[in-house]
Amino acid sequence: MSLSFLYSTCSIQIHQIFKISKFHTKLSGMADWDDSVTKGPDTCTLKCPKAAGKRKSPIDISPNHACEVMLPELQTKYNTEKIKQKLQNVGYCWKVVTEGKYNDLALWGGPLQGQYKLLQYHCHWGDNKTKGSEHAIDGQKYQGEIHFVHINNRYCSVDKALRHSDGLCVLGVFFNLGCKANPEIAKIIDVMNKCEAKGAEAKLERNVDISQIIPFSGSYYTYSGSLTTPPCSECTTWIVFEDPIQISQDQLDAFNSLKDGTGKIITNNFRPLMPLEGREVRLVRNSNH
Ligand SMILES: [Zn+2]
């Protein structure tokens, strides 16, 4: 399906963009982090009625049980030159809010119907090598996981998107520790010292080239799930890439310098694994892989 077709079927009016802007703000602030979210088994369900269903995230992905499928190519158009990126300390993780036109933050193809827009990306990480990511592969966690949160262009308000099973799409990218600093993550680290306290924010001086962080050339798993922070709405198509990226110990140390609202270091900010509940996890192998 051509990009021009997608644009012609999704004409966005000015007032709708305004609503999305408000949605963006709400998504940024929707997860008033509560430590209990990370302390299983599922305290989120008690706090969020919307989390009581059967398509929760994150999950333990079993490659042997994933159903291998062919899907249209997953495509993006993140126009680094034309968007704004702002780092925020939201008290439970770092988050980069992305602002720009639909055409400059676009995701489509793969398991998705229609086009999505990138709203923000944020990170989950741990204090040691055995944990940090939200998803696991065969029970194994990675050091951390970056989530790229997109809204379906069909829905122009927060309420609508969160109420629909296809409201959001999140790309999950694992990371491990390696010898070299990741050059794109370095652009976030550049201003991280301005964001040590909860509520602080700083414009990125060098925009992250988002396409360089996401391992699009590799395989990915996809399934229907939920947000992993309150309100934990079951509105998310997950796309979790198989190949991890690498960041350096110094970069992880910078993440672990951020503080929450009580002055405590932010770390181990992941939700416990949730039951699969019979859902199908599909594996899309990239032919170049
Ligand atoms: Zn997340």
CATH superfamily: Alpha carbonic anhydrase
CATH architecture: Roll
End-to-end Cα distance = 24 Å
CATH class: Alpha Beta
List keywords for this structure.
289 residues, alpha+beta, Carbonic Anhydrase II, 13-stranded mixed beta sheet, two-stranded parallel sheet, 18% helix, 27% strand, globular, binds zinc ion, Carbonic_anhydrase_a-class_CS, zinc, lyase, carbonate dehydratase activity
What would your notes on this structure say?
- Belongs to the alpha-carbonic anhydrase family.
- One of its GO terms (cellular component) is cytoplasm.
- Reversible hydration of carbon dioxide.
- By secondary structure, this protein is α+β, with helices and mostly antiparallel strands.
- The chain has a single domain (11-284), classed as Carbonic Anhydrase II, CATH 3.10.200.
- Helices cover 18% and strands 27% of the residues.
- It has seven helices and 15 strands.
- It has helices spanning 3-8, 14-29, 43-47, 158-163, 183-189, 210-213, 249-255; strands at 60-61, 67-68, 75-78, 84-89, 94-99, 105-108, 115-125, 136-137, 144-152, 168-178, 201-203, 220-225, 236-241, 245-248, 282-284.
- Strands 2, 3, 4, 5, 6, 7, 9, 10, 11, 12, 13, 14 and 15 form a 13-stranded mixed β-sheet that branches. A two-stranded parallel ribbon has the order 1-8.
- A hairpin with a 4-residue loop joins strand 4 and strand 5 (94-99).
- The model is unreliable at 1-26 and 28-43 (pLDDT under 50).
- Residues 122, 124, 147, 228 line the site of zinc ion.
